[in-house]
Amino acid sequence: YTLFQLCDILGPDAEPPATAADLWSLSFAQMNLITAASCGPEVPLPFELLHHGFEYHARQSPYLRAVEFDGRWLSYGELNAQANAVARQLQALGVTVGSRVAVVMDRCLEFPIALLATHKTGASTIPMDASFPATRLEFMLSDAGAHAILSTNRHCDMAKTLDASIDVVSIESATLAKHAHPFTPLQTATRHDEAYVVYTSGSTGHPKGVPVKHAGIVNSATYRSSDLGIVRGARVMQFMAIGFDVCQWEIWSTLSQGATLVLRGGDEIDMLSTVNVLAITPTGLSKLGCPTKYPNLKTVCVGGEAIPTSVKDLWSQHVQLFNCYGPTEGSCTTHVHQLLPGEPVTIGTPISNVHCYILDDNHQNVPIGTLGEMYLGGICVASGYINLPEMTEDRFLVDPFGHGRMYKTGDLGRLLPNGQFEIAGRQDSQVKLKGYRIELDEVANAMMQHPSVKSAAAIVKDKTHLVGYFTPAHVNVDALRQCVSDQLPVYMVPAVWVGLDDMPQNSNGKIDVK
């Protein structure tokens, strides 16, 4: 890439560089290449609101199978009618545009019903995995200012203990089927309104809420649907954790196209043999064994972490394998690229209505092939973080190359000469492990809640597991593990624990994790 840059600077009509800094200046021709590669095509959205695609199919093909779980299924018409019944209950509680409704459940038929019902009122959803520790759920409810909670009989009692001031509505699909009536919202949301809030790991010791707009998720959930095999009648697995932003992509990309959403449960291997499309992390994909075990599987979308070349080369011989990149703050997906045997792993080019820049510390474009930090602009950019104005100001900046704002991803990447983008890792303390974003400071903060722990740190070891370090060394590991498990999801609990007499420090007096 250095040679590429020198050839660009020392073209046939160029003056010799006067200083070393001039070696990294951009010619007019290279700047044009960067500009062209940085912007996805501008295209109109197929519909304004996230649930409108589903409602179209509910009207046109009400008997088409919409969702399956544990031997039960609902047609598009049945799912629509049951969501209408819940929407009426929410509206009676005052839920409308600008409200937030927490959906506290595990994976079940009622989960998509709850999401649809909330969107029909104009409100946004806060998907919350009922298996999370109560303290984490309580924080999310309070931080987001939830107006109501939707749950099921299984988790209703627990949900009521989270915040006594919030109304809890328990829903069951079988009961809702008896109360099917049309629903008319008192107020209609717009594409610029909030669709959902997803909580990701946060450096303050608490998760941070990311509000995603309808326009952003509609854009990403409908991009190249037919190329991905998400078409009318296709069977798409809902595989990811329900509190994860990719779950929203799985659900809405499926229901927007008249496909069938197959909710994961029971024997995953048997279920995978019946589906056509799967979104999964590379770690998860590597555990599935030989691709020939799944003859009906036609498309696999991987994301959340880098895919090993060996896994890519194996699976891309049997299925359409797509590398999908995008942070929660970028409406889940900003790049989609098909991976082929023998070819390098990249994330391709920005999807429609999305901009991608590789910038230096002064927010200037770096030369092609040079590492820099990745920034995202366009319709995908979220509105910031809930109740975190300083962090929002630091990560969501004015876009100097377009309109609106751009998001500082913290990912290192480069633009390749072929116009594709490549990710080279992260540059802050936030890491990705098995597809989950984990703020190491949040893990350390949870360890510090143990009454006997004096200092703590967390690191990722061998890219496979979390290690928790703590002082003093005599702290009971079982008690510490339970303390952390009570606060954090299981994927954020260290697998290995190391007690130390003294925590190493750097010259600034901070814990030296290196």
Automatic annotation (TrEMBL):
Ranges where the AMP-binding enzyme C-terminal domain occurs: 442-510
GO molecular function, a single term: phosphopantetheine binding
A Pfam family matched in the record: AMP-binding_C
Domain AMP-dependent synthetase/ligase intervals: 54-385
A GO biological-process term: amino acid activation for nonribosomal peptide biosynthetic process
Matches recorded under CDD domains: A_NRPS
Any one annotated GO CC term: cytoplasm
NCBIfam families: AA-adenyl-dom
Protein name: AMP-dependent synthetase/ligase domain-containing protein
Organism, scientific name: Aphanomyces astaci
Native organism taxonomy: Eukaryota, Sar, Stramenopiles, Oomycota, Saprolegniomycetes
